[in-house]
Amino acid sequence: MQRQYRLRRREDFARLRKQGRVWRHRVLVVSVIPNGLAHNRYGFITSKHLGKAVVRNRMRRRLREVVRRLHPLLKPGYDLAFIARQPLVDLSFPALYDVVWSLLQQANLIQPASPGDLQS
């Protein structure tokens, strides 16, 4: 993921935690707040409760790939933090994609499809 789309600073995560709107699922939590930019920024939180470093890194890679695929479909101008929960470790990639999709729909971040999008 390109540097401009990364959420890295402690202050940004703290602002998301304090002021962000949260949507929860059994395996994932998404916190969202407007960022005033022309693009979205994404952060991924995987705690040590998930497992050792290999497992945590695998979960981050899988979440980044799902977000990379969904990024063009999302409304711009938001900071999003994805917080992994323990059951995420056992989830298949298509199931993870569905969970992220449903959470982003609940957050009303999916752009409506335009006629040009339907033809591709």
Could you please describe the fold and organization of this structure?
The protein has a 4-stranded mixed β-sheet, sandwiched between helices. The model has no long low-confidence stretch (mean pLDDT 89). α2 (53-70) crosses α3. Helix content is 39%, strand content 19%. The protein has 120 residues and is an alpha+beta fold. α2 links the parallel β3 (41-45) and β4 (78-84). It has a single domain (3-110), classed as Ribosomal Protein S5, domain 2 (2-Layer Sandwich), CATH 3.30.230. The protein is built from 4 helices and 4 strands, in the order αβββαβαα. 21% of the residues are buried.
The H/E string reads HEEEHEHH
N-to-C terminal Cα separation, in Å? 23 Å
Principal-axis shape:
globular
Rg is 14 Å
Task: Describe this protein with a few key phrases.
single chain; 120 residues; alpha+beta; Ribosomal Protein S5, domain 2; four-stranded mixed beta sheet; 4 strands; globular
Short description:
39% of the residues lie in helices and 19% in strands. With 120 residues, it is an alpha+beta fold.
SSE diagram, text form:
Blueprint: H1 10-19, E1 21-24, E2 28-34, E3 41-45, H2 53-70, E4 78-84, H3 93-106, H4 115-119
Parallel strand pairs: 3-4
Antiparallel strand pairs: 1-2, 2-4
Helix pairs in contact: 2-3
